């Protein structure tokens, strides 16, 4: 049997073998083993960080970069960055073994190499990266220098991790940015609330491009609409940086906040119910489609069961839409279930752009 025949028959085979799954052309319907009264929504996320990162130039590394340590488990990582110079990709020289030096009060501190290059490459660090441990510098300000020949314009990423530091940057933020172009956030540093204006912010699109943003009292605001809708091509990442004076130390922290740029590409308009047999109920859900794509609906049928009004069955169906249209859903009733029936639309999914809209509406 050739591949074309197999692909043609597969939807029919699924329908015949599962009983609860239907597939006709681009339409698929599935009834869950158990009914769900509602879908839990997680609109926000809570993140914390005891690390920071910053871009430093060769000149800064030669003159000295000031830093503070608040942990007995501190790791300093330095990675050469790649940039375009005169139209060609150029990467700063690899960090030589033993070239990272830390000084306190003008005295050089003895450091321990943390990882070898092969191990760091396995963790995804750039070629030529190096790391040292600075566990003995807890509670001290220090100056970092790179003692090798580099150009002033060379660029490196400095990344400091302090795994058991009591000074953490905590951020609560939404998982999605809605149409108004604002991402509400709340930030704390070591339990102390921070104003959004105290944070430095930058944003990256899924393709890595920088996105212009501003910090205002009610969150992060966009200077222009975002390009990518949904999570199909990846997530947007908001980077937040903070420097706070704590116990005589200038403690830095950085954190990444991933989110989806969400837009309402479709809406549930109305639905109808029809009892097609003593054991089956059909629903037709009308969708107002603003953007062509594949959309799915999850819904639960409620009715009388064992003398109580309860969730009887949950079905999810999806199909391709080029315009506003109706999506059918089928429900197989548990034995003994009767009407009156009521339909609750739990969720609408834009499968083309990977967007999820929790509805939970009856």
Automatic annotation (TrEMBL):
Residues 1-23 form the signal peptide. Gene3D superfamilies: 2.60.120.1370, Uncharacterised protein PF16024, DUF4785. It comes from Pseudoalteromonas fenneropenaei. InterPro entries: DUF4785_C, DUF4785_N. The lineage of its organism: Bacteria, Pseudomonadati, Pseudomonadota, Gammaproteobacteria, Alteromonadales. Keywords: Signal. It comes from the Bacteria. This is DUF4785 domain-containing protein. Residues 28-162, 276-355 form the DUF4785 domain.
